[in-house]
Design a protein that fits this description.
Blueprint (H helix, E strand, L loop, with lengths): L2 H6 L24 E9 L2 H10 L5 H4 L1 H5 L11 H16 L4 E11 L9 E13 L6 E11 L5 E12 L8
Antiparallel strand pairs: 1-3, 2-5, 3-4, 4-5
């Protein structure tokens, strides 16, 4: 007996399991903007941990006294690689969880405005292009444009990411 059958046992209700996953190649919609929620509020601890784990000794991320004296921002900046990683990570559950074969590359990465501790990062994605793989049957190449905004709707990061994803299993339809 499946878990769904056990859960509905005695209720007279038939249920089926739904497992959260990313999109198969055929399901990527080039006419949609995917909003990834919830947002992620960054803390000073996030910044210090990420910065030290990645061996980035930039004082703008680690040294409050130094960063406070620097213009134009006058405060510690959140590591831009944290911003990029979190922006991409926010999209995984909705777009590529369980369907990704490989990350092929990044392009056009920009950080037009910094993030600070206490800011919240919201991510959205648009599918720029999708094509079947010429060399890998049953897989497709998808190019995704990610945009990260803070709580004031200011763009803090953009990146284009190219991924290799699985096509729908034989006989299934989107």
């Amino acid at each position: 007996m499946s878990r769904a059958e056990r859960a509905s046992e005695g209720t007279g209700v038939t249920v089926h399991d739904i497992v959260q996953r990313g999109l198969f190649f055929e399901e990527f919609d080039t006419d949609a903007r995917y909003l990834h929620r919830p947002g992620r509020t960054v803390t000073e601890a996030d910044n210090v941990l990420f910065t030290t784990l990645t061996m980035n000794t930039q004082a703008l991320h680690l040294d409050a006294a130094f960063a406070d004296a620097q213009r134009p921002f006058g405060a510690r900046l959140i590591n831009s690689m944290w911003t990029l990683s979190t922006m991409v990570g926010a999209s995984v559950a909705q777009l590529t969880q369980g369907t990704l074969v490989a990350q092929l590359g990044f392009g056009d990465v920009t950080f037009p405005h910094p993030l600070f501790a206490g800011d919240t990062l919201y991510t959205e994605s648009v599918i720029v292009e999708r094509r079947l793989s010429a060399s890998r049957p049953g897989q497709g190449v998808v190019t995704i444009a990610h945009t990260g905004r803070n709580q004031d709707d200011v763009i803090v990061a953009t990146a284009t990411r190219t991924v290799l994803v699985r096509c729908l299993p034989e006989g299934e339809t989107p």
